[in-house]
Amino acid sequence: MATYIILSRISPGAFGDPKDFKKLATSVSAKIKSECPGVKWRESYFTMGRFDIVDVVESEDPRQVERAAMLIRGHGHCRTETLPATSWKEFMAHI
Questions:
Q1: How far apart are CA 78 and CA 15, in angstroms?
Q2: Domains of the chain (ranges plus CATH)?
């Protein structure tokens, strides 16, 4: 199963009160689970850098990862960047 990193920046107008973010995140998560059953979420992190959220997902089907990123963009009001990723151990084994 391939690993992908989805980097997201939340749009300034995505929600009014920071407390509303939890409802937005729950809604987007439910939509992804419903529409992208082949995407398995491994980890999510909130960061204080260029991107607000870093999600680590796995999938056999890159189209489902693309769909998940589009749902994050459309329903989560974010800009996303998706990167295929290889574990360090696997990468080093192939050098």
A1: 11
A2: 2-93 (3.30.70.1060)
Name the packing angle between helices 20-35 and 62-76 (round to 10°). 150
What mean pLDDT is reported for the chain? 95
Q: Which secondary structure element, helix H or strand E, spans residue 81, and what is its range?
A: strand 78-85
Residue-level length of the chain: 95
pTM for the full predicted model: 0.91
| Cross-strand bridge partners of residue 57 | 4, 41
For residue 93, with 0-12 CB atoms within 10 Å meaning exposed, 13-18 middle and 19 or more buried, which class applies? Answer: exposed
Classify residue 12 as exposed, middle or buried by CB count within 10 Å of its CB (0-12, 13-18, 19+).
Answer: exposed
Rg of the chain taking only CA atoms, in angstroms: 14
pLDDT in tens, 26-37: 999 999 999 999
